[in-house]
Amino acid sequence: xxxxxxLLCIVMLAIVIIQIGKVTELTAxxxxxxxxxxxxxxxxxxxxxxxxxxxxxxxVVSASYYRDDMLWYGVNExxxxxxSSIDNxxxxxxxxxxxxxFITHILLFWFSYKYRGREGRTVLYMPxxxxxxxxxxxxxxxxLTFLVIAGLDTWNDVMADVKEGEDYIEIEANGxxxxxxxxxxxxxxxxxxxxxxxxxxxxxxxxxxxxxKGLDDFYPDExxxxxxxxxxxRITARDVLHNFYLPHFRTKMDAIxxxxxxxxxxxxxxxxEYRQMLAKSDEWNEKMDPSDPxxxxxxxxxNYELACAELCGKGHYSMRRVVRIVSQQEYEDxxxxxxxxxxxxxxxKGGKVVINGKEESEDPFEGKVTPVDVVKDSTSTAVTVKxxxxxxxxxxxx
Amino acid sequence: MAYVTETGYNEEVLIKENGLNDHFHDxxxxxxxxxxFITTYIFSQDHKMIARQFLxxxxxxxxxxxxxxxxxxxxxxxxxxxxxxxxPILGKWITVDEAGMGRLAPEFYYALxxxxxxxxxxxxxxxxxSGTFSNLxxxxxxxxxxxxxxxxxxxxxxxxxxxxxxxxxxLFLSTGPFSGGWTAYPPLSALPQASTGSGTGMTLWLxxxxxxVVSVLLGGIxxxxxxxxxxxxxxxxxxxxxxxxxxxxxxxxxILSFPxxxxxxxxxxxxxxxxxxxxxxxxxxxxxxxxNVGGSPILYQHLFWFLGHPEVYIIILPAMGLVSEVLSVxxxxxxxxxxxxxxxxxxxxxxxxxxxxxxxxxxxxxPFISNFFVLFTLIIAVPSAVKVFNWIATLFGGNIRFNxxxxxxxxxxxxxxxxxxxxxxxxxxxxxIPMHDTYFVVAHFHIVMGIAAFFGxxxxxxxxxxxxxxRFMNEMMGKIHFWGxxxxxxxxxxxxxxLGMAGVPRRYYRFDTFEAFKHFEDTNKxxxxxxxxxxxxxxxxxxxxxYSIFNGKKVTDANPWGATTxxxxxxxxxxxxNWEGNLPAVERWPYDxxxxxxxxxxxxxxxxxxxxxxxNH
Lengths: 398, 617
Fold this sequence. Notes:
The complex is a heterodimer of chains A (398) and B (617). With 398 residues, chain A is an alpha+beta fold. Chain A contains eight helices and eleven strands. Chain B has one domain: Cytochrome C Oxidase, Chain A (Up-down Bundle), CATH 1.20.210.10. Helix content of chain B is 61%, strand content 2%. In chain B, the strands form two sheets. A two-stranded antiparallel ribbon of chain B has the order 1-2. A two-stranded antiparallel sheet of chain B has the order 3-4. Chain B is globular.
């Protein structure tokens, strides 16, 4: 019934519109086509002028309205060292394009109005003007050259991989439908080898545990990093494309099955500091629940987040992990609490994996050596512990 | 310009006085091919009928594609609302829980997004836009009887029809149509285990688009051949209207890039069906490790975007051509910088082939390679800027006739500026890091190649409707359509810039899973409401279109706009062969408006003694 009514309404509306059209056509015929065209010229040219003015004002007003929600010129400054140069580049580009946007729009709408059709107006016969065309080819070319140089300078800095001998933390983010698996290297500072064929429920990364580097690796459910220390994220995917996206760190890189990628960044603001920074803005001091004065503000609830930015299937929108940036001390405290995945979930658990059609044990040391010995072994021989090290041995309990 | 032929001077005089006699009517081809209903309206080989077929099929798809966007906008704007009322149309894709609460299934949300993109990009803005106007205008504006091959032209439409039919069928599959995004990146598109839409839906998607490419190639070869061989006497390349230049370059770009897309599709089909590993490597899915190793998903992205980027110029160049023509005719003033306009189109066409990887800055390609693509991408802004300034200069000093086609042409320029400038952000790889795959990108390409191309198309339809159907479209409805659409389109897409600048990713089913993205409920509601209004206004256009075919004001003057180009020398409703007698001969460039105190001097009027042809500079 409602469907019928809606249908009727649509038909009625269509008839009304057609009638309006018909009537205006008839009046135009009665008054003469020329007069009708003249009136159309007046109304529509004024309309364009007003539209142009309202549009440009609206642009400015809306840009300031959204200011503190945006990553750029508002309070949301880049939380990574590398991201700050991107922010600068964005703002420079915004100024350059903003000027062009306003000039061209003002000219477009002003000319439309000024040269609206009038009886007896003499048209300027100006098929071309080489000087003008030289100017508006050269000026954009110069501005764009500047933007290209500035852009590439920033790009090559941001994308640079870590150098030999540099001090950094390497972690791994592995995308799957529909979650991020996270892996830290453990006390030895090195991620262990993996083979996608070894993936099971108890071995989500498919680690090859014959590699001693991997025995101390642990899999936290949030990314915790110390402020001011370079991080290299090894980005991998288990099934389809994903994208490692940290909006506040200006980080985005595809995770590709079979082709590991990476991202290097240096967090510069801790989560706590960022909350305080946001609290300076009224926008962020709104309560989470406006009806409850006791509820926390948006700034207090703020967290850095990891998202997926490459369509990966029906759960694409839900691949969230929290990122916490903390002080060096807090980071070390947190590290102490982490436990080796192998020792807790694999060793002597009896897990099986099928490799090349043959079933074998997931644990190469099954029943042979205690995991404590294995892990000790790997840290003492294979790995040189760094000086300022975060490599405080994660206690491996049986 | 002297035109020397074998027989020399005498023929020249004869042509000037009588037009070019190509002996067309001695053979009566025209009537033989249009003798009954089927050969006239269905399997027609007449370019004007084929143009109308493309246009109406394109409009059908535009309505479907836009309606899909309304459904997914409802989900984004009002995720908590009951959608059970859509169940009669969408069936089981609306899941209704025990409380009677209907929700759009996430799989179907992604299917809608994917189909919306595929349909609008390929079926509406490629076939519907350049298919319609290339077919209509190339022979008419060049003074040709028809396309070089009427038969291939017919096949071109029917391959498009076949492609449409397959795609339409895929919408009704129980597993749904393809749902992995219009770019169809593997492995998601290669593995049925990864998504329900990647099963039969994807097979049909690939089949449909392969047919579509056949259609584009048949059409394109025809357009190029016609432009090169069937120009009438005196119609040198530098006397062609900008519309024809645009269609000509579009066709060349299409011929060079679409085959690459098909090769990419074929490899994908092999991976899907024959167990090859072009795009697949080290995948663990559905509890199993696949055997495929050594493939690269990035290879597909290269093959896809080698078409995908030229594709956006395949869409926008015809719109630019139409707008250049409409602006000049209704400003009663020559297009400013005709040769610069052609040169900038050539530059854009050339550069379009060496910028494809700017879609892939964040896809894991070597960052060093991106340097080149940044450079070439930002260089494209120069010819684009030249075009914009030339359009604005065309308005300067004119005597502008404001009607629906002109309004849409001016709207196009505004949209092209707004959308083009955001491209300067995205083309710079460093800024693309945070912007890639956010709503900023959505806003950018919808404004610059979606809405702008639609505006070009609308300008074209309103302007050439008298040529297509012998009647005018209703002006009042046209103006309602324009004002609502320009305001509404900006209302939809402008706020999306802010969403993107806040980091909100595109292709999200809902935003409340993330603290960072959930605070734009009001903005999303606003966008959805604006989208519904704009959609309703397009219905006004459709009503106007069909109403005017039968009841519009009749055209009484063969040249109703006072235009200079050849299509207005045909009878009001041209039959097969376009000109009843001899072909018109061309004597001058197509933009002599306001010259020597005359409102316009048509292309077929000889140059006065000592007069210089306007195009020669």
